[in-house]
Each structure stands twice: as C-alpha cells, then as structure tokens.
Amino acid sequence: MLSHYLLHTVTSQLALTSLSYSIRYILDAREMPILSMLEKIRCQVMNRIYTKQHEAKHKWTGTICPKVKKKLDRHIEIAASCMVYPAGGGIFSVTDKYGTNIVDINVRSCDCRRWQLTGIPCCHAIACFRHDDIRPETMVHECYSIETYMQAYGYNIWPVRDKIHWEKMNGVDVQAPIYEKKVGRPTMNRKKNPTELEGGTKLSKHGVMMHCSACGSSTHNKRTCHKYSDKNMTNPEGELEEYDDPNILKVHDV
C-alpha cells in the first residue's frame, strides 16, 4: 500500500514538472499560424531532450540527480543532532529537538512521513543508516536515479525537412478559415469562469453560505433579520433607555 502511494505521489510530481514546461512552450507559440506554432514547439522539445541527455552524460556524477543529492546532504547534516535507540529488526526510535519518531527501515517509513511522501530519506532515517552502516544514496527511491532519468530522456525527436521537400498528396486543399475583423483591440486574456473575480487577489465567495451577523441564521442577512429590526425599534439609534428611579417617589420624614 505504501509503495503504491509513494510511486503515485513521486511520479505525479515529475509529471507535473514536465507538464509545466509543455504549457510554457505552447504559450510562447500560441500567436503563430498552426504550422509555425507546431514547428516551434517541436524544436523547443527537441532541444530540451538533447540538453537533458548531454547534461546527464557529461556533467552529472554519482547515482542520483544533483538536486536530490543536495536535499539528501541537507538531511545528512541535520541527522547529526538526532539520538538513535535501536529496537531490533530494522526498527529504531529517533529523538530530536522536536520529539520522537519511529523509523522502520524494512518498509522505508518514518513517523514524520517525509520519507514516504518524497522518496528521499529524512534526517531520522539517515541517523539510523549510520547505526547500521547503510549508504543513504542506496535508500533513495529509484525514480531519482540518473539511470531512470536517462530512460525518461532516452528517445529523440528528429528534425523535419523544409516544406519545399514535402511530398504532394492528391488530397483536398485546406483553405484558411474566413476571418472577420472585430471592433476594438483583440483580447489577450483567457475567458474566466463566472465564479472567478476580474483581477485582484481576493477569492470569490461563490458557493459560500452566508449567515446573519445578528442571530446567526443562514436563511437571511442582518438587513432582513426580525430580531435586529425589533431591537432597533425599541431602542432607535442605540440610545439608552430611561427608567424612573423608585427612590424619588418615596416620602421622607422630616
């Protein structure tokens, strides 16, 4: 169960990174004609794959990716301040300044959940590795290895010859769509959902249930609240009510 959740979480993060670059390429070329747009996107992706291959082959060293190695080194420094108490069978109790966590090396889990969520051993797990003479690099999830990285960028996108060399097909001629010029400056922003606000940083209150500030009911607001209106009628404008002092009615003996 943990391995399935870990694999799903880590691969989702990597897929999100690749998707963000794809969207950036589309945004850079979306104003071009269709053929020019596709050609620019293809060239950008082709160049990115070659750059990643060259970088991994000639610049990277070790077994895991450099950014993951930096995070692992940071965890190794923090692990020096942890106290480890072995319980046997690959289970440890680790104490730091924030509290105590239980580490199970066999299932690669820690109570802080950093190891399960990221696939990178936390400082508590690394402190246990020192006790059993285990290299931290060997306990990092395989998706962060350089070998897996090279498999992901192991394919190539080849260049396309100029259109003057394209073979002519006896198909239907595709004509450009009829263009109707609209009045005014063309819009550049996307069409927003009706629930989104036009500019600004505040969130929309669409779908939020409002409550009366006077009685707390969700069926009306303060303006139509009967309790609030009755209170104002008995005491308009918040004036203090006057009461007769019973002492002035008493007759004092002389």
Task: Name a few traits of the molecule.
alpha+beta; 254 residues; single chain; 7 helices; four-stranded antiparallel β-sheet; disordered C terminus; disordered N terminus
Strand residues, percent: 5-15%
**SSE topology string:** HHHEEEEHHHH
Number of helices: 7
Major sheet? 4 strands, antiparallel
Q: What is the C-alpha radius of gyration, as a whole number of Å?
A: 34 Å
The shape is flat
Topology readout:
Blueprint: H1 2-29, H2 34-58, H3 66-79, E1 83-88, E2 91-96, E3 99-104, E4 109-110, H4 114-118, H5 123-132, H6 146-152, H7 226-234
Antiparallel strand pairs: 1-2, 2-3, 3-4
Helix pairs in contact: 1-2, 3-5
How would you portray this structure in words?
There is one protein chain. 39% of the residues lie in helices and 8% in strands. With 254 residues, the chain is of the alpha+beta class. Among the domains are: 2-61; 66-147, no CATH class. Strands 1-2-3-4 form a 4-stranded antiparallel beta sheet. α1 (2-29) packs across α2. It starts with a helix and ends in a 20-residue tail after the last helix. 11% of the residues are buried.
